[in-house]
Design brief:
Blueprint lengths: L2 E8 L7 H13 L20 E9 L4 H5 L18
Parallel strand pairs: 1-2
């Protein structure tokens, strides 16, 4: 089974493109020239690393609504469960 490493980033327009990050991952980490591929190496527990993909997960930066709106909805009327009748 091949494993995927995940990289979580907050999106920013000036960050490198995902393609550039993937190219650097492959060139320097996953399959460096003249070296064994990462997926063929073993970790400190003598287990095969088996890692060959990088997934980049972007999150959206907080906007004004996130920063200034109230998100606490507790205490606003009755709980939904109080409307359920057996």
């Amino acid at each position: 089974m091949q494993l995927t490493e995940e990289m979580h980033l907050e999106f920013h327009l000036e960050d490198p493109k995902p393609q550039a990050i993937h190219r650097l991952w492959q060139e320097y980490v996953s399959e460096p020239e003249g070296e064994r591929p990462l997926r063929d190496m073993c970790n400190s527990l003598k287990e095969k690393v088996n890692l060959d993909r990088l997934t980049i997960a972007y999150s959206r930066p907080p906007n004004l609504r996130n920063r200034f709106s109230v998100r606490d909805i507790s205490g606003r009327g009755q709980d939904v469960s109080s409307y359920l009748v057996e």
